[in-house]
Structure formats: structure tokens, C-alpha cells
Design a protein that fits this description.
single chain, 254 residues, alpha+beta, CNF1/YfiH-like putative cysteine hydrolases, five-stranded mixed sheet, 6 helices, binds zinc ion
Length: 254
Amino acid sequence: MILEKFKFNGKNLEDGPSWGMTDISMGTMRFRWNETNENRNAFLKKLCGSDKFPAAVELIHSKTVYDIESADETIGLQGDGIITRNKNIVPVVTVADCMPIYVFDTKCGTFGTLHSGWKGTGIVGKAVGIIIEEYGSRPEDICVAIGPHIGDCCYNVTEERAHYFIDNFCHDCVSKISEDNYSLSLTKANLAVLIKCGIPEDNIKIMDECTCCHKENGEFKFGSFRRQTLNLPSDMPLEERLTKFTVQAAFVKW
Ligand SMILES: [Zn+2]
């Protein structure tokens, strides 16, 4: 499992919350409100202990962020981000190639976890906006961490999607490989969002181990939608495909 501290003014922020993500060895953390995942429940119980409570949402690739005060506020809800000032809450999202983004405001204490796939890119701007507007924080008070996700080494997109990213984020987040085949860097697109928000680079930590191809001791370290569904029969229904890869849990915890 990955467990890290935020970076603030270029240094590890030891007296802040930690952010983390499970890996492939811990099994799937898939989450739906109408399903029971014993593996996930056991992991979260151990992570949270007796005094903390996980808060989750069912992901929909949106830019919807909930700012909550108690863990049960998100029950039954769909969205892609949870922020809170309550240290007893552990905001959890799931990822498998999509980018987990973690935020912590050193001034007002708001922290949270976001799920940012290609469609949701920009959700971090939404979360930062809420923190600044609701709590009067300044961009330089806010730390952001980007967790492991699919890197530009493995993320190929069409020309149409490449142009969407050039138009909405930055030029250098895509590069042309061949006709209608571009590589996309979600890291660069999100850095463009963060710079626009005014977050100092010294407050941004990036872990860019690629979930699709990164190996440790010869074994893939992370579950990956792209890698693990590549060789499935093309006529397999989507709902079944969605059960065939290892989903990671991403969280921030005091
Ligand atoms: Zn890769």
C-alpha cells in the first residue's frame, strides 16, 4: 500500500493527514451502494480503527464534490469527490487507471479525496474553489497530491479527445503518435488546472508510477482497467467487464 504525507512549501508536512492507495496485492476495493464487498469492508475497518469512519460515493465520472460534516451524509449518493473538516472521517474513492487526487488545506483543515478520470479532469479545480470560497483560504495554504494513475506511456486517445484536452487544459498534455492516436498526460492536464488555481508547485506532490505498466520485483503493482480488460472477449457485457479488474481504494486519513 502507498501511504504518504502532503508536501507544503517543498517539505513533507508531518503534522497533517496522510494520503494513500491500496495496490493489486490487497484485492479489489470495488464499490457500489447495492453490493457488498467483504474485502473492502475488512480493509476499511482496519484502516479506520474504532474512532474513524469511511465516507464513500458511487463514482460517475463527474466533477461533483461533496463537502460533508459527518460520514453518513454521502450514503446513497453519486459523485466523484468528498472533502471535510471532520478528522474522524476518512474520504474514500476508488480508482483503476483514473487519477486519485488528494487535497489538504493547512489553514482551515479541509481535506479530501477526488476521483479524476479523463471526463472528470478539472474536479480538483472544483474542490479547491469550494475550499477558497467557503472557508476563505488562499491557494498558497492548500496542498495537493496526485496518486498513481495511467501514465502517458500507456494512455492513448483519439484526436477528438486530444483536442478536448488541448482546448480545455494545455497544449503539452498531449503528443501525437500517429494518425488519430495521441498519448495523454493526465498529470500535465491537472497541473495546468492547479497552476490556474494558484496552487504553488512547492505544495504539489506527484506520484507518477503508471498503474498500467509499473512493476515491482517483476510483478504489476496496481490494478489497471486498461491492462486487465485488454484481452477479454469483445462481446462481454460492460457490467461484467467492470468486475474483471482490480480496483484500488484511495483515501486521506488523519
Ligand atoms: Zn505505463
